[in-house]
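Working notes for the structural subgroup meeting. M.R. asked for a predicted model of this chain before we commit to crystallization trials. I am recording the input and output together here so anyone reviewing the notebook later can reproduce the run.

Input as submitted:
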Amino acid sequence: MSDPNSDPDTNTPVVRDDRIPDRTAAGGGTADGVAADDHAGIGSSTASPQGAGHTGSGPYLLPLATTEDERRRGARVALLPVGSFEQHGPYLPLATDTVVACTIADAVAAAYPVLRLPPVTISCSHEHADWPGTVSISAATLYAIVRDVAESLRRSGIDRLVVVNGHGGNYVLGNVVQEASAEGRRMALFPGPADWDAALAAAGVETSAWDDMHAGELETSILLHAHPSLVRPGYEAGDHLAGDRRHLLTLGMAEYTESGIIGRPSLASARKGQGMLDSLVKSFAECLAVLER
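Returned structure, recorded in token form:
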């Protein structure tokens, strides 16, 4: 996640299934009769930090509900996680933003009657192009994907969409929401800056949003809480700060960091990750209320 003028990596976080509020009820189901695991886009983490040659598939990122489950749920609001496939330094996976966005979406879906969609896994990561493995699509393509998803949902009877953004460099998502509003359609971008501010404060995150830009305290904490096997050893010594990033869009991330990290992952903890997720789930209530006006 990266953004020269805002905190790109705080556009989005994550809970292990057994810690998601109200994930299970008596008999292994939920209040709406849908199996507790059906919304669980992220199950047990299977990846392990075994070095560059490891090819484990990692946690599931796809919702597992059936069409009958969704018929019973009767959701009027859908969640679309949008991540990225970009470098996150030596200690976090390329798919970090997608994992974070999906985990936020799963936490929200466990607490509210929403349709959790599969994620968009590649987005606008052009500023990370100097690192191997990073892949991007154009802003126009991302714009079209979100618009097409919203239109397909509308035809099936769901006219409200929340884009759960895990990558701050996806600036075009704000324009998609703006245009939808002007057209009289209900769409939201979550978490917003105020949601992140509340989450950082609630969790006791010590690094400022500006300084903790990428693969730092925030993202590492979320993964330590939700998917600790995805965090490779060494993050404790990975801190790197670059407060003056005024030309990031022009020069790219490599001008400001050799490792790919801008932040303080050494301060990360599972407790902070859980605190951020709990706060974000609470914050979603306001987002949902606005969409249902």
